[in-house]
Write a structure and sequence with these properties.
globular; metal-binding; TIM Barrel; aldehyde-lyase activity; eight-stranded parallel β-barrel
Length: about 280
Amino acid sequence: MIWRIVLNLVNVNELGLRYDDNWAVGHFNVHNLEFARGVVTAACENRSPAILAVGMLSIKYIGLKPLVAACRAVAEESDVPVAIHIDHSRDVELVRRALELGVTSVMFDGSALPFEENVAKTKEVVAMAHDHGATAEGEVGIVPHGTDPVSEKDMTDPDMAVEFVERTGVDLVAVSLGSIHGMKTAGASLDQDLLRALHQKIKAPLVLHGASGVLDEHVKDAVANGIRKINVNTGLQVACKNALTAQLNASPDSGLLQDFECGIAAIASAVSKKMVLFNSVNKAA
């Protein structure tokens, strides 16, 4: 069954991205209804497309079905294009369940697998996604977690990435340029020469993971040099936690819903700043 009944709930290919554009769509990880509300509020205010992303830890925390349902409910109220994406799945069957629940975009993360296995499983996921009218993302190279710099061997090899895209048929490909997942402050730089080489060789949109830890000027340059989808997770969590901490310290007797509203506002503000940086403001069809 293909879920395509919600106005403005689209797949990533329908967000308006083009190979030679000068903007990138923001992928924002959501962990509950408040996060989804904050992201879509910013998208509507900025007339920007957006991606609500469902990650593995959030699925473990709240469950795949209720989290996708929350995203769909909020997307239904949007008047700008929104995609719902499952992020970093290493389980083909989990991707299948997510598609049946109505996500419009999927990522299979086979980056840690041997290349041939990554190709085979990603190709399977691509076919599954396309059967549901969804888009599919794969990854070549490794974007690590932690604080250590990315090693050269983990960065994406352009020729290998070309082969991966041609053999799998992915709609988007995540590449390793120097970013690191989970950084709470921005300090990482990107290999812009490598990015330019990848953009020249690969016609599929390129994806930057771990953007919360990348310096703003490097993100801006990355958009100019070919990145078309940018993943943000940790930065939104930090913004929400800081706002809630300040609210609880300043107003310990406030109502819990009022506290949640502060969290939503902080998320929306953080997302808006990223949309400006990604040059996606007023790009909604």
